[in-house]
Every structure is written in C-alpha cells, then in structure tokens.
Amino acid sequence: MVGTINLALGKLTEAVDNLKAQTKEHGQELKAIGKDIHAAKVVGGLIAAATAILGWFIHEAIQYLSSHPTK
Known about the structure:
Blueprint (H helix, E strand, L loop, with lengths): L1 H66 L4
C-alpha cells in the first residue's frame, strides 16, 4: 500500500515538474511574441510616417507645378 502511494506521488511530482517546464517555455514564447508585436508596431509607424511625408511632398509638388505653367 505504501509503495503504491509512493509510486503515485512520484508520478505526480514528475507531472508537476513537467508542467512547470512547459509553463516556463510558454512564458518565454509569449515574451518573444510580445517583442515581435512591438517591433511590428514600430515598423508600421515608420512606414506610415514615410508614406505621409511622401504624400505631402507629392501634394506640394503638384500644387507648385500647377501654379507654374510651362511656356
């Protein structure tokens, strides 16, 4: 009886240790995903800013060219 209980406790201890390891791995994966999301937001912001500046430049060029007709 004691041997059976000891064996069961050993298996439970092993299962808990495995769950701890899996939880640690999942935590690391979530941190990596969080970093990837942050990087994507930064890159997206830079792309949006570059697009806005380019759009403004094109708008100003069109305004300038339309107010100065060629001869």
